[in-house]
């Protein structure tokens, strides 16, 4: 099935092919969940709970569906494209799909082959996706610059586990609590700002960094390449060790705020 035909069937399912819905019809079809796997060796009925990152609130226009494809090898995954995905109920007529608030429960009969399954969605013009700001770095050392990595990850357990695995492999730790941000379906950049900051330290370069909304909307929960920016804190007054700053991510009318408290350890010669 071609990508165009697959998209047309999806639009038709939700009645989005008429002229009154032209603006929505032209919207992009996003993958809004990680890729889950179901095996022919699993005992039926098999239940798959798919966490998605769509903000499902009053007045939302999200059109969400579940699609599947045959399980791909590592080499095949490099050349995979959107035409590989098909509606799960087209491939497996006995599959049952139940949409809940932040997840979708898919019940599958006995399979005759291994499959991958994921959620996809088309946002309306005012729709948003749920994301979290996560901040990683090494333990700060007195008198040395401190590098912080500020991530925007999809609001799911899978996304959080994947970014933690990546940063821990680099020797970095999660430095503070996660903060939630709703990212709008727009071209406006996401602002990451350090303010205020404790006297005795300063930010090298611009206190305001940006992440493009396009990068945030194309992030995948099972990917480790989530959009992020790097902030360098310079230790100006070497006599001070207790550190504090506020960090804000903002997009449109929504903000995510967190505080970072640390102690710059003294390292002897």
Write down the secondary-structure element order.
HHEEEEHEHEEEEEHEEEEEHEEE
**DSSP strand tally:** 18
Strand-pairing-aware structural class: alpha+beta
Helix content: 10-25%
Strand content: 35-45%
Shape: elongated
Mean pLDDT: 85
Helices, by number, come to 6
End-to-end separation: 66 Å
Radius of gyration: 22 Å
Main beta-sheet annotation: 6 strands, antiparallel
| Unreliable residue stretches | 1-5, 14-26
Domain UPA: 128-249
InterPro entries: UPA
Protein name: UPA domain-containing protein
How does this model look, in words?
This protein has about 270 residues and is an alpha+beta fold. Helices cover about 15% and strands about 40% of the residues. It is built from six helices and 18 strands. The protein has helices spanning about 5-15, 20-25, 75-80, 90, 155-170, 215, and strands at about 30, 35-40, 45-50, 65-70, 85, 95-100, 105-110, 115-120, 130-135, 145-155, 175, 180-185, 190-195, 200-205, 210, 230-235, 240-250, 255-265. Strands 9, 10, 11, 12, 14 and 16 form a six-stranded antiparallel sheet that branches. Strands 1, 2, 4, 5 and 8 form a five-stranded antiparallel sheet that branches. The radius of gyration is 22 Å and the shape is elongated. About 30% of the residues are buried. InterPro entries: UPA. It comes from Pocillopora meandrina.
What labels describe this entry?
18 strands; alpha+beta; five-stranded antiparallel β-sheet
Q: What is the topology?
A:
Layout: H1 3-13, H2 22-25, E1 30-31, E2 36-38, E3 46-51, E4 63-70, H3 74-78, E5 86-87, H4 88-91, E6 96-99, E7 103-108, E8 115-122, E9 128-137, E10 146-154, H5 157-169, E11 173-174, E12 179-184, E13 190-197, E14 201-203, E15 208-211, H6 213-217, E16 228-235, E17 242-251, E18 254-263
